[in-house]
Amino acid sequence: MTALGALSLVAAALFMTLEARGNWSFVLPFRATKLAGLVLVAVAVAVATVVFQTITRNRILTPGIMGFGALYVLIQTVLVFGLGSARVAGIDPRALFAAEVALMLVFAGLLFRALFGGSTRSLHLLLLVGIVCGTLFASIAGLLQRLIDPGEFLILQDRLFASFNGIDDTLLGTAAIVVAAVCAVLWRWLPVLDVLALGREHAIALGVAQDRMVALALGLVTILVAVSTALVGPIAFLGLLVANLAYMLLPTARHAVLLPGAALIAVICLVGGQTLLERVLSYDTVLAVVIEFAGGLVFLLLVIKGATR
To answer: Which GO terms describe its molecular function (predicted)?
Structure first.
């Protein structure tokens, strides 16, 4: 943990100072805003993924399986298809951010209520329905994208991929408050998360209201994913990558170590990766593409490793 903390500080320092030329009173606040956005997304994605894998007891699943990324793509596609890119660009970013987060939370709420509100409470059924909904959203978005004007489609493509360069600083305050509040609640639940990791039978035997806590934890994960997705766009494999690196580097089941460890690894990946791309490679590639490629490789390795056991 000490080494991870030191590396994250080094990455942040390099991001703020490397090749900083001109007026420092402009450069430092500009980079600080961007750094805050990177750290915020890193913490939200890492914490959400570790908690999600704890309650599902599966280390190859991420919250993206619930269809939030596909829903984000559908929202952007419907907006550009119905209003046009010019009108969408004129919408207040704060109003658009709030609307996107609200729609994702409504979708998750309806899903949880339908599958967790009755006597039958199956987490696996919830995940299956989430996959089906994600496929449905992606299919509708694909249909609309085929009907859209080619020029509008090119503009839409820029909105569909995760971008760490265009984080709106007016949204950071609200997003930071929400993420901090959710993390504070999860920090109080650390002993409960440790028990939930033991499995349903053990959790119930130790006095944990398993169904209720799983539903509440899923709600908090949904908030984190919705905020990070609305802020920068969908990132499918970042959580998978940093969570499994945390399991490897921090061989413990205690969430008091895993959650901050995964968050620090995510900060190192995002801030260090963005520094490398901006200062060394001069934007020759996109950070989201590199992360998705590395995360995809980790996913395949985990699947192959599981199949050979």
So the answer is: transmembrane transporter activity
pLDDT of residue 57: 81
Angle of the 210-232 helix axis to the 93-116 helix axis, nearest 10:
150
Residue 307: per-residue pLDDT: 45
pLDDT at 181: 93
Tokens of 307: 């199949």
Phi, psi (deg, nearest 5) at residue 160:
-90, -15
Q: How is residue 45 written in tokens?
A: 């994605």
124-151 in b/e form (b: 16+ CB < 10 A) is: eebbebbeebbeebbeebeebbeebeee
- Please name which of 33, 47, 107 lies closest in space to residue 238, comparing C-alpha atoms: 47
The confidence score (pLDDT) of residue 120 equals 53
Domain that holds residue 220: 2-308
Residue segments in the chain with a per-residue pLDDT below the cut of 70: 20, 22-24, 26, 114-123, 162-163, 166, 281-286, 305-309
pTM score of the predicted model: 0.84
Q: Which DSSP state fits 277?
A: I
CB 108 within 8 A of CB 42: no
CB 25 within 8 A of CB 15: no
Secondary-structure percent of the chain, ordered helix, strand, coil, rounded to 5:
80, 0, 20
In angstroms, the Cα distances linking 23 to 26, 28, 37, 130 are 6, 9, 22, 49
| Domains in the chain, number | 1
Residue indicated by tokens 């985990």: 302
Q: Which residues contact 4 (CB under 8 A, 6 or more apart)?
A: 249, 261, 264, 265, 268
- Measured between alpha carbons, how far is 148 from 144 in angstroms, rounded to an integer? 6
